[in-house]
Amino acid sequence: MQSERVVIITDIHGCLDECRQLLDKLSFDKSKDTLINLGDTIDRGPKIYELFVFLHDLKEEMGERFVMIRGNHEQMMLDSLDGSKRHKDLWYYNSGEKTVYSFINHKHKIKEYRSWYEAMPYYYSEERFQCVHACLKNEDPAKNDVETLIWGRDTDYTGKLVMTGHTPYKIPLYFHGKDNVGVLNEGIWGMLPETGMIALDTGCVYGNRLTGMVIKEDRFKIESVPSTIPPQH
Ligand SMILES: [Mn+2]
User: Fold this and answer.
1) How many angstroms separate the alpha carbon of residue 99 from the centre of ligand 1?
2) Rounded average pLDDT over 149-153
């Protein structure tokens, strides 16, 4: 059975308190809604292990209705578990050590949950839209290389609507080709675009805001909550 409402969140990076607040503001109902997380749950933020437990429990309860998409941070972590120094250096350069110690401080090791992270797909598609961590060049997600899906920053996309995170903007934006960008207003229902790209990462872990959206039929609404982290310049 398809859920009536789809809730999309992204780039939480251990910001568990803001995640809970945002889900409340989006009236998220774990017994009915579909939830899509666009990746980058680990590294940088204050409650990485606690966020993992929260998401892991939700996944247990929601099953297929909770889609956990892979971000570049989950990918860096998984690559580094293979033991190569090059991969570990890259992950630690991107705050991986904070994740390692967040798990160790709770008497766990992230590698215990390797298969849980490995199960994360690179994208999600349905009739109305698709979701990916970073960006698409080809509108068929399967025709993009992994680098584009989890690291890309192109904004000149005009294909079937895609929701993305990864690149933080001050406010949520709608791109329809490079020179065509619009601000997405919060708290009001609008028509879901059929094409283009909705960018939802508003840099919560850098002290700005955590943003998400809810989709119901052919309409959508954006909401956000302030970060509890002091702004970084
Ligand atoms: Mn990212």
Assistant:
1) 15
2) 98
How far is 216 from 196, CA to CA, in rounded Å?
Answer: 18
Of 148, 112, 115, 117, nearest in space to 43 by CA: 117
Q: Which protein residues have a CB closer than 5 Å to ligand 1 (ion)?
A: 40, 71-72, 166
For ligand 1, the distance from its centroid to the CA atom of residue 153, given in whole angstroms, is 10
Range 5-226 has CATH code 3.60.21.10:
yes
Q: What is the pLDDT of residues 177-214, one digit of tens each?
A: 878 999 999 999 999 999 999 999 999 999 999 999 99
- CA quadruple 23, 163, 113, 50: dihedral, nearest 10: -30
Answer yes or no: is pLDDT of 42 > 80.
Answer: yes
Q: How confident is the model at residue 1 (pLDDT cuts 50, 70, 90)?
A: low
Residue 49 Cα to ligand 1 midpoint, Å, equals 18
Report whether 87 contacts 76 (CB < 8 A).
yes
Query: How far away, in angstroms, is 1 Cα from ligand 1 center?
Result: 31
Measured in Å, residue 204 CA sits from the centre of ligand 1 at 12
3-state secondary structure at position 65: helix
Give the pairing type, strands 34-37 and 66-68. parallel
